[in-house]
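Re: [ENG-882] Designed sequences occasionally contain unexpected residues at chain ends

Forwarding the minimal case from QA. Structure tokens:
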């Protein structure tokens, strides 16, 4: 099996073991354009779950502030919806990375 394909595939599979650090390292170390392209795509896909978690934390803090002031009474429901949406987005990203990693190996 071609080592470049394995390295590119590991960039996608690193969602399980190294987060977005591994694709960054591969991007700067590798000299192959194909591997760099896959490393960049994997890095961007690894940032999506991080971004949803950051947005969820910001939303939770702002909801907590509004809930303490008595402005809105349905805030816990919105927090639950945010958790569900973030979970769905993160699962889609993980499945997408698995599919792309397998496609690169073929």
């Amino acid at each position: 099996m071609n080592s470049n394909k394995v390295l590119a595939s590991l960039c996608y599979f690193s969602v399980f073991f190294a987060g977005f650090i591994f694709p960054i390292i591969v991007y700067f170390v590798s000299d192959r354009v194909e591997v760099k392209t896959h490393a960049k795509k994997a890095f961007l896909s690894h940032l999506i779950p991080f971004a949803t978690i950051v947005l969820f934390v910001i939303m939770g803090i702002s909801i907590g502030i509004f809930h303490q002031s008595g402005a809105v009474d349905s805030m816990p429901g919105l927090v639950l919806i945010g958790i569900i949406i973030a979970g769905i987005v993160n699962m889609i990203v993980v499945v997408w990375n698995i599919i792309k990693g397998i496609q690169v190996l073929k």
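QA comment: On inspection the terminal residues look reasonable. Helices lie at 3-13, 21-29, 33-68, 75-105. Proposing we downgrade this to a documentation issue.
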